[in-house]
Amino acid sequence: MFKRIPSFFSLVKISHTVFSMPFAVIGFFLALKHMDRSFELKTFLLMLLCVLFARNAAMSFNRIVDRHIDKKNPRTQNRDIPAGKIKISHAYIFLVVNIVLFITTTYFLNILCFCLSPVALAIVLGYSYTKRFTYLSHFILGVGLSIAPVGAYLAVTAHFHLLPVLYSIAVMFWVSGFDIIYSLNDRLFDKNEGLHSVPARFGIKKSLIISAVLHIFTVVLIMCAGILNQNGIWFWIGAVLFAFLLFYQHIIVKPGDLSRVNMAFATLNGLSGLVLGMFFILDFYL
Predict the structure, then answer these.
(1) Alpha carbon distance 247, 155 (integer Å)
(2) What's the chain's average pLDDT?
(3) SS3 state of residue 254
(4) Which partner from 14, 21, 75, 153 sits 20 to 30 angstroms from 51, CA to CA?
């Protein structure tokens, strides 16, 4: 099993952690500012581990639940479980280990994070079943990733605040928007298999419009959060770059040309999150 550790990185698409990690970092530094506290390496590392373990659990569970669907889909039949690179029993072990590690790590943060850990797991794991009965599955995925900024804020403060909630709502819209774009790859397969998605229900053109509207909401919420938090010039540079990258993906993905869907989904959205997170930190220190 241990010889197949690289396969587990592939199983959970470890590179896609860039979608949630930057906003977790934003939530963390936002909490430091509100609490007027200096950087705490221990809390920061525990927070990062929580994000990693929760995401590993969510992705491995998704791959386990969807293994029969993935085997039918030409685009996904080479994924690790349907291709036989990882045994289903090993995938279950990996899932349980990450669930235990996530809950254990929250215990070392504070009691509120520990008590809320089952709720967080229920959301991120429950997403995997939603496309079987609702096209709103994109939004459930968005809710799952939106836990990151609020969770990171709670890791430091152990109480809620409006600003991290605004960032969480922004993340929900952002993720929902780019997941709709990604789902364009499987529009016909989903329709034939009776699976639900925005592209399968509304078609390519309307799906791209819905995605664009969601990303407009994302940018508006991030700017509202910046105003309320009285952020400086570095934050606004990051926010403008973030908005540009979101705008650009809607230029390169068109109803008649879906060849750059993967670039829009992975590259541009991953980069946009990293840019915003980096400039938020610069604004915090400078």
Answers:
(1) 32
(2) 92
(3) strand
(4) 75
